[in-house]
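Notebook entry, structure prediction.
Reason for the run: the old model in the group folder had no record of what sequence produced it. Starting over properly, with the input documented here first.
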Amino acid sequence: MASVSYLLRCSVLVGVLTLFAVDEAKGDTREYQFDVQMLNVTRLCSSKNVVTVNGQFPGPTVFAREGDLVVVRVVNHATYNMSIHWHGIRQLRSGWADGPAYITQCPIQPGGSYVYKFTVTGQRGTLWWHAHLSWLRATVYGAIVILPKLGVPYPFPAPDKEVPVVFGEWWTADTEAVVSQAMQTGGGPNVSDAFTINGLPGPLYNCSAKDTFKLKVEPGKTYMLRLINAALNDEIFFSIAGHNLTVVDVDAVYVKPFTVDTLIITPGQTTNVLLTAKPSYPGATFYMLAAPYSTAASGTFDNTTVAGILEYEDPSSHSSAAFDKNLPVLKPTLPQINDTNFVSNFTAKLRSLATAEYPANVPQQVDRKFFFTVGLGTHPCAVNGTCQGPNGSRFAAALNNVSFVLPTTALLQSHFTGRSNGVYSSNFPAMPLSPFNYTGTPPNNTNVSNGTRLVVLPYGTSVELVMQGTSILGAESHPFHLHGFNFFVVGQGFGNFDPANDPAKYNLVDPVERNTVGVPAAGWVAIRFLADNPGVWFMHCHLEVHVSWGLKMAWVVQDGRLPNQKILSPPSDLPKC
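New structure, fully documented this time:
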């Protein structure tokens, strides 16, 4: 019952958690009930109905230990279709539970339900869950806390307390109306009105001082902050005035610890940091600030700052609250909004532990190499239409000039039943069909093609993928998430990737292992992974505006020969399209 005491200690006992005593080698079974329902929420002095899970915003935290079976029954009481993605969970052979709509399942329709079942295998740290359909994840998201197996310590000093800290975005308008309008006009969507920390915008926004996240600490104690960037469209700098942060884990993988005063976290990523409170009462409170990183020329980002407050308990006070509201508040200094050098220097510090207990199993040899261009583009406006994209066109986004079109049935079902004809083709280009100076002067023709084109891999294929950012319609950073796998970030750089010289600089010893990585603005990133998980796996930019424009694709990993190398059969309650 140690996990239950952990829940109580963190004061976030949410959802429905049932423990069944089973064989320790197999872990426990953790059961949750997720009721998707509407809730009236007031932020920035304005109220609106939003989609939530269990009437909570953000939603309930899912707790498990490494090796546990997690069972979540989702019942859709809302008026929208719904699917839930368990972001970063490997889903070994359980792709039916991965969650992206029209990739591994059809959506859960209003009044419907679906039970997600998956085992947490070889992972410990922080992940998260969110809606995976349209822009519904603006309010439908929550943390996943994965503790080590019983009796296994952290590979760093154990904190006194652990606290999820989730960054989000808030629109005063209905986000489904925002994306619908953008798709109709072909222009950029309206940006959010505020960032949030654990759903609260904080004192720097109008009418929001009462809606402020406060972290209350005791002198001398250590706290592990489980940071999650659940924002729809913005990479975020984060800092706490007067305090350092020691990074110990990213995307539920331990890293060699390093200490910073500011960090960068892209949408989809998680970062666990240790915060050690000052040894004695400081006589001040401290802002925790988060603000965007962006190199976008189009201005489609929220250029505001969210603040939380770090408060110290005064040991000399006899008040039951023991917090002084009249103390000075200190502010940290964040990097400039376009400080790409800071981002590059921070990401270069990330290294896997690469120990006997936590090895870095980097593929040393590669069976298949891929080179994907990543960037924006255009679609022509309809005849006699009026569009608000560049030069009267419609915004688009593409990988290797292919803007992905979601099918009307689930890709995994089509693959599993052998009925892919008319649903998808397996001819996604392994490299650009028309090479150009990717980070130099862009081509005159910025139009991209449409298609539902996939890559098919035999089970056990070792893969190297270089993602190359382009300067078409401006050089931007693109955070990319791969479902079903972790990967190793073996190299990255600025300018055009040099296949003759850059691979010699790869780190094949202790590269960081994660599930979401930023493709640098006007640069490239190289990843390697082993295709050891049969199924259909989505890969996409985690900026929702770019996903809406088509910056996504999918991989098919075929079954292996052995029984434990084949995807399981679909559950009987799998939703139908």
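Summary: Confidence is low (pLDDT under 50) at residues 1-24.
The old model has been moved to the deprecated folder.
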